[in-house]
Amino acid sequence: MDDRTHVTKTEARGATTPHMTRYILPISVALVVIIFAILLLVWR
């Protein structure tokens, strides 16, 4: 017997699709690279 409830992607996520990861991830990676570059130059 298959008594599982099937929902669509939109229903499962509450009908919202924020695209924040598209901006947060590259900005965070860029900041980490910049911080490491500064630290490398300072403690040389």
Provide the fold topology:
Layout: H1 9-12, H2 21-42
Detailed description of the structure:
- With 44 residues, the chain is mostly helical.
- It has a domain at 18-44.
- It has two helices and no strands.
- The protein has helices spanning 9-12, 21-42.
- It is elongated.
- The N and C termini lie far apart (67 Å).
- The mean pLDDT is 86.
Main attributes of the structure:
mainly alpha, 44 residues, 2 helices
What is the structure about, briefly put?
This protein is mainly alpha-helical. The protein has 2 helices and no strands.
SS elements, strand count: 0
In whole angstroms, the N-to-C terminal distance is 67 Å
Strand-pairing-aware structural class? mainly alpha
Radius of gyration: 21 Å
Overall mean pLDDT score?
86
Q: pLDDT under 50 segments (min length 5)? A: none
How large is the count of helical segments? 2
Task: Report on the biggest sheet.
Answer: none
**Assembly type:** single chain
